[in-house]
Write a structure and sequence with these properties.
Layout: H1 11-34, H2 41-62, H3 68-86, H4 92-115
């Protein structure tokens, strides 16, 4: 089922969910590509953390959990920190991931703002 078919979500929530799951894909790929490189350990760790948080955020938003806005705030913070780390590396996977992370952070913050 596509997120757009879930009628109880606002546009901001749909964008947040979509962005979260795109961030999961990007960060899992980036973490995998960073594995084994001494200089990329921090990037891999942050990517794994974001993948877990973004997964939870997407799930919480989809079911309108009591904690979905707080999880979205944490997810946005983690995405920004990870994007800053990715920005320090020239690897294509880091550059692609950085873009998805910044979009996810924006989507999470917009959803939180709309819910306030």
């Amino acid at each position: 089922m596509a997120v757009s078919e879930i009628d109880h979500l606002t546009d901001e929530m749909e964008r947040c969910v979509d962005s979260c799951f795109e961030a999961v894909q990007a960060t899992e790929w980036c973490a995998d590509q960073c594995t084994g490189s001494e200089e990329m350990q921090d990037c891999a760790r942050l990517c794994r953390d974001v993948a877990d948080l973004a997964t939870q955020c997407g799930r919480f938003c989809s079911r309108e959990s009591t904690f979905h806005t707080r999880t979205a705030e944490l997810c946005a913070d983690a995405c920004e920190e990870c994007a800053d780390e990715c920005a320090q590396h020239d690897a294509e996977h880091c550059q692609v991931t950085e873009e998805h992370l910044r979009e996810c952070a924006d989507a999470c913050r917009e959803m939180v703002s709309a819910m306030s």
